[in-house]
Each structure stands twice: as structure tokens, then as C-alpha cells.
Specification:
The chain is of the alpha/beta class and about 190 residues long. Helix content is about 30%, strand content about 25%. Bound molecules: S-adenosylmethionine (SAM).
Length: about 190
């Protein structure tokens, strides 16, 4: 289990050539199993107001937006490099908003979103900042809304699923479903 001192911050404003290349390849393959299976498993009516928190280059966002023709997608992504890719990939959709900022500076009203997606993001946030982030996400979720979380839980890359559960428990969110692939990944739905 990593503590704050062992946490290695990734510079998402200057991703490596390999990181960008693998993002391009997975995007070209339309999510290539890893993304599309999971995103398509999210239960949606098509009219939801959704936040893709830490959307990166938008591979998940692109799959999501096609599922909500009568809804709206907000992509929040602090990295300027990844937001450029997002705008390129989703810019033709009318029902999308891009926020190139951190949640604290985003000025989002309470009770805004029906669904919030956190896809491989929490483990990349410094452990000391995670509680504040989850508190903000819980504030902008509608009372009957759902938060979908998918995080790696490997010791070498990820965070303990017990920590994820505690973060949501601390903001009074209930885990209504989950799955754990031992030493690989955790997925959870909170409401
Ligand atoms: C591993 S990438 C995942 C991107 C995308 N969700 C996906 O699954 O393809 C992690 C993303 O989280 C973003 N991120 C890091 N710290 C963040 C924070 N405090 N708030 C929001 N996003 C953050 C990074 O800029 C990066 O795009």
C-alpha cells in the first residue's frame, strides 16, 4: 500500500510519447474492449446530465456521449494537452462542455449531475487531496444520482479499494454495487 510519500505524481501536461501513442491507438480502436465494455455497462436512459471527471483524451467520453443523445456531457480535464485531444475528438457534438480546470475552480452548482464517471483518475490524485475532491463530487451530484468509479488497485500502480470505499463513506455515499478483480481493479457504484 502506497503512502503519501511514495505517491508518484504524473505530469499529465507533458505526457510521454508512448502514453500519447497508446491513447491514439486505443482511440482508433474505439475503446478496444477495455473502455467500451465498461462504459456500455453503465445504465443510462439517454437524457442524463453527466460529468466525465478527469476525462483525459476522451476515449470514454466519446463512448458516453453517443449514449446520451438527449442529455449533456461535461468533460473536466485539468491538462491542457489532453483537453486539446478531447476538443478535437468531441468538438462536433452539440451537447458537450469542456472544462480545462480543477474541480475547485469549476464553479459547478450543487445537485447538477445525474451521473459522474471517475475512470482511472482517483489513484492519480495525491492521497491528501482525494477527500476534498470526493466531497466536491458528492456536492455536485443530484440526490438520486450515481457515481461510477473504476480504479486500478495493483500495489505497483493504483490505490487500495478499501481507501476508495472509505472516501465515499466519509461523504455519506453508499456503495450500491461493486466488483473486485484481485490485485487488478475495483469498480463501484455509489449513490
Ligand atoms: C490515467 S488518466 C485517465 C483519463 C480518462 N479518464 C481515461 O480513463 O482515459 C488520469 C486523468 O486524470 C486527470 N487528473 C489528474 N488529477 C486530476 C484532478 N485533481 N482532477 C481532475 N482530473 C485529474 C489527468 O489529467 C488525466 O487526464
Amino acid at each position: 500500500m502506497k503512502n503519501s510519500k511514495e505517491f508518484k505524481e504524473i505530469d499529465f501536461d507533458r505526457p510521454s510519447f508512448l502514453f500519447k501513442l497508446s491513447d491514439s491507438l486505443v482511440y482508433m480502436l474505439g475503446g478496444a474492449g477495455f473502455y467500451n465494455k465498461y462504459i456500455e455497462s453503465i445504465s443510462l436512459l439517454g437524457s442524463e446530465n453527466i460529468l466525465d471527471f478527469g476525462s483525459g483524451g476522451g476515449i470514454a467520453s466519446k463512448i458516453l456521449i453517443k449514449r446520451i443523445p438527449d442529455g449533456h456531457l461535461t468533460c473536466l480535464e485539468p491538462s491542457t494537452c489532453w483537453i486539446k485531444r478531447l476538443r478535437k475528438r468531441l468538438g462536433t457534438f452539440k451537447n458537450v462542455t469542456f472544462l480545462n480546470t480543477y474541480i475547485d475552480n469549476a464553479n459547478i452548482h450543487d445537485n447538477t449531475f445525474d451521473v459522474i464517471l471517475i475512470h482511472h483518475v482517483l489513484h492519480d490524485i495525491h492521497p491528501e487531496k482525494r477527500h476534498k475532491v470526493v466531497k466536491q463530487l458528492s456536492r455536485i451530484l443530484r440526490p438520486d444520482g450515481r457515481i461510477y468509479v473504476r480504479e486500478p488497485i495493483k500495489k505497483s500502480h493504483g490505490m487500495p479499494y478499501e481507501e476508495i470505499r472509505q472516501l465515499f463513506k466519509d461523504v455519506d455515499k453508499k456503495e450500491i454495487d461493486f466488483s473486485i478483480k484481485t490485485n487488478k481493479e475495483y469498480t463501484g457504484i455509489y449513490s
